[in-house]
Amino acid sequence: MNTIDIKINDRSLKVLPGITILQACRENEIDILTMCHLKGLTDVGACRLCLVEIVGINKLLSACTTRVASNMVIRTDTEKIKRYQRITTELFFAERNHVCSVCVANGNCELQELGYKVGMDHIRYPFLFPECKVDTSHQYFVMDHNRCIMCTRCVRACSEVEGAFNWDVKNRGFQVRVISDFDTPWGESITCTSCGKCLQACPTGALWSKDVVQGQLEKHPEMITELVEKRKLLLT
Amino acid sequence: MNRQEFKDLVIAEREKTKNSTCKHKICICCGAGCISSGSEAVMKKLQEEIIERGLQSEVEIIPTGCMGPCNQGPLMKYLPKNSIYQKVDCSNISQIVQSQVIEKKPIEHLLLFADSRERPFSNADEDPFFSKQLKIVLKNCGQLNPERIEDYLVHEGYRALDKALFEMSPEDVIAEIKQSRMRGRGGAGYPTGLKWETVYKYVNDQKYVICNGDEGDPGAFMDRSVLEGNPHRVLEGMAIGGYAVGASKGYAYIRGEYPLAIKRFEAAIRQAKKMGLLGPNILGSNFSFDVEVRIGAGAFVCGEETALIASIEGKRGTPRPRPPFPAESGLWGKPTLINNVETFAGIAPIINNGGEWYSEIGTPKSAGTKVFALAGKINYSGLIEVPMGTSLREIVFDIGGGIQGGGEFKAAQTGGPSGGCIPAEHLDVKMDYEALVNLGSIMGSGGLIVMDQSSDMVDVARFFMEFCMDESCGKCVPCRVGTKMMHDLLQKICDNNASRIDLERLEELAVYVKEASLCGLGGSAPNPLLSTLRHFRNEYETRIGKYEEKHIDVPQTSEV
Question: Does residue B380 share a domain with residue B511?
Fold first, then answer.
């Protein structure tokens, strides 16, 4: 099969043309941080954790949305990238309410894991604590907007995998919130199929099932990936 | 209508104008600025006055687009003498008609006048406000009735489209634009010819042309005035663009806050369709092109091309990462040519006069002219068009008539919330894309806000940051949370409550947001902050000093 030559962090690699830089990194066990990426869903480049430096391009580009090209020279480990990952992580934590000790996802949370990975020992920015609702109107599930980091993985899982289009986003800027239908309580949604895919896609304790309590939540985002891949197999 | 019929019609319209019995023409500005200061009532009063005096066969009244000095409106221009009257009131009408039309002498104290000038000019062309300008894009704004296609036809309207369709191949058109060295007027200054060529090269059975009229910078109103004053020029540019890149469908995305621009542009589309200048087989050629208007719903971010495209598609207006650029995968995944209103308005003159003619205007790196919207503490605020490379001093003092009330110039803010402030020591900067970037600002879409000593630069930075914070789409973290954090820190500095550590954090965040954001909104949001820090750092230091006086024991460096 045709491959192209690229270089990531001084390692020469042969990769398939057309794949993203993120795919190239993951296939070659080069560590790269992500939050809004979930294999199987469309990538949106929103969390900016996977930013990489590419020689000859004066901008930082998100690895999840940028495709490899022949002889591309990529760096994922510079001081600047590490510093920016740390700031991004701090901003995630400062934006809403992420107190791990009282969260259902404690110990099983991608955001928490990210904090450890970037070595975040404290947060230099003031906590904003905006007023956020906890929507418990659904029969089985809860949406806690305080824990939401606006990665929109639930929105994409719902529209792309389940095809229900229950989730969407309202408002702008700092006021953005994930909404159910036309901003109605989740329990009154006429599109939600209660499939639970959004729960599995969610990286934090924003979406959870009512049958768990603090620290017990277990998530399997890989199930979304498997589902998408199995469907592809069926189609081929 | 085929080509011959079109030519006959243009000749007939020219004859009609030439043989008109009206020796006097009175133009009244009916742009949104003058309408808001009462020009419609003035026009009504003038019509009544003319009928009362029985001068209908001698005086022609023309409602036109923007004439320029908007803050002096309502404006009224008497032709052929070219005397411009400012702040015309219904009570002056009788006097003006009597003196100017019947006695043939101007009324000096009602003429256009800025405090800084020695005397008003009876021929407005002698006023430096007009004599220092070079109008290409705005050439017919303020001369013709934007709601009549016939007026545009008399002023060489659609001649460039006719020439492109029948005398040039798409490659020729692109070569002409490339030769003109024109750069996109939306702000980034990407070479227009190169963009057209890129779209042209992508093979696809469907391509699109989009005109970006989602002008959102505070203090900028160039696109609005062009759309209101000469909508056919924009339409013609879009059609030529469509012909050059091989697109059959165009969209004009105009912000909803511009109802008059939308009304006039839609009227222009109807008139052009009726005459066969738009629609199937234009002028009998093989080229078909249709244009639809899409109205923006008030989001600043929709001026960003990928967000604008999402908005046209009916989706939430949020940007997506580039590449792929719209030239490759734009509207509904098809190759799309997207240009600003002012860019399209500059196309017809290039086709008519040749790329070489255009390339000789301006500076070596930035050819042509640029429309600026002057605002702030300046005597003539309004719309001007100058060759690239005109100095800021000429713009502010010669054209703009200097600072209001004889005040002292402090800074000029260019490029809106994506731009920066140029201090007095750089007044002689030759305004072009590169020179402004070197000063930490940008050309942007052309908003130019002049500030005097009463402006507080920290507060200016805070204002623009608040704007970006509100207008961030909320998709990416650096822009969504970063602008909020920066705004809060700036507010803290404004309140004299910030320490040196806060300033350090602010600077670190500014560089981070600039580099890590997904689109141009976040990427340029820190610019006003960074440029005021560069040129007016003392104002930040003073406020921090005030805080430190109260809190002597604060640590002097960050703990990180």
Answer: no
Q: Which of B63, B92, B126 is the last residue of a domain?
A: B126
Give the nearest chain A residue to B558 (CA atoms).
A124
The radius of gyration of chain A from alpha carbons, rounded to an integer in Å, stands at 19
Determine whether the interchain pair B481/A87 forms a contact, defined as Cβ–Cβ distance below 8 Å: no
Q: Same structural domain for residues B306 and B427?
A: no
Look at B476 and A65 and tell me if their CB atoms are within 8 Å.
no
B470 and A173: CB-CB below 8 Å?
Answer: yes
Nearest to B67 by CA among B80, B78, B76: B76
Distance from CA of A127 to the nearest CA of B (A): 10
Residue B548 burial (C-beta neighbours within 10 Å; 0-12, 13-18, 19+): middle
B292–chain A nearest CA distance, Å: 27
Cβ contact A124–B485 (<8 Å) = no
The reply to whether residue B473 touches residue A60, judged by beta carbons under 8 angstroms, is no
Say what percent of chain A tops pLDDT 90: 94
Structure tokens at B96: 């003006």
* DSSP character at residue A97: -
Q: pLDDT tens across B210-250, in order?
A: 999 999 998 899 999 999 999 999 999 999 999 999 999 99
Same domain, yes or no, for B157 and B289?
yes
Confidence band for B426, pLDDT divided at 50, 70 and 90: very high
- Domain-located, residue B247: yes
- Testing the interface with B: which of A172, A175, A176, A177 to mutate, by most B Cβ within 10 A? A172
Of A51, A172, A174, the CB nearest to B516: A51
- Residue B557 in this model has a pLDDT that exceeds 70: no
Q: pTM of the predicted model, to two decimals?
A: 0.94
Q: How many residues would you count in chain B?
A: 560
Neighbours of A67 (CB within 10 A): 14
Residue B375 belongs to a domain: yes
DSSP state letters, A26-73:
HHTT-----SS--TTSPP---S-TTEEEETT-SS-EETTTPBP-TT-E
Query: Do B462 and B449 have their domain in common?
Result: no
Residue B283's domain comprises: 149-358
Average pLDDT estimate for B302-324: 95
Residues of A in contact with B321 (CB under 8 A): 44-45, 61-62, 65-66
**pLDDT tens digits for A42-99?**
999 999 999 999 999 999 999 999 999 999 999 999 999 999 999 999 999 999 999 9
Indicate whether A139 pLDDT > 50: yes
Q: Does B481 touch chain A (CB under 8 A)?
A: yes
> What is the distance in angstroms between the Cα of B516 and the nearest Cα belonging to chain A?
7
In this structure, what CATH number is given to the domain that contains residue B121? 3.40.30.10
Instruction: Output the pLDDT for position B1.
Output: 84
Give pLDDT, residue B554: 61
Q: How far is A9 from chain B (nearest CA, A)?
A: 20
Considering the domain architecture, whether residues B449 and B464 belong to the same structural domain is answered as no
Q: Assess whether pLDDT exceeds 60 at residue B559.
A: no
Alpha carbon of B513 to those of B68, B505, B516: distances in Å?
A: 37, 12, 5
Q: Do B476 and A66 touch (CB under 8 A)?
A: no
Work out the number of other CB atoms within 10 angstroms of the CB of residue B310.
20
Q: Which residues of A touch B469 (CB under 8 A)?
A: 173-174
Q: How many CB pairs lie under 8 A apart between chains A and B?
A: 103
- When pLDDT is cut at 50, 70 and 90, the band that residue B445 belongs to is confident
For the stretch A179-229, pLDDT in tens is 999 999 999 999 999 999 999 999 999 999 999 888 888 889 999 999 999
Average the pLDDT over B404-421 and give the result: 93
Q: Which of B126, B141, B172 is where one domain is finished?
A: B126
Q: Which of A150, A169, A175 sits opposite B316 (nearest CB)?
A: A169
Judge contact between A11 and A29, C-beta under 8 A: no
Query: In B394-519, which ranges are continuous DSSP H helix?
Result: 433-438, 457-471, 477-494, 500-516
Residues B398 and B336 in one domain: no
What residue of A is the nearest CA neighbor of B517?
A: A48
What domains does chain A contain, in order, with CATH numbers? 4-76 (3.10.20.740), 84-221 (3.30.70.20)
Residue B374 parent element (H or E): strand B369-376
ipTM of the complex: 0.96
Distance from CA of B317 to the nearest CA of A (A): 10
How many structural domains does chain B have? 4
What pLDDT is recorded for position B560? Answer: 46
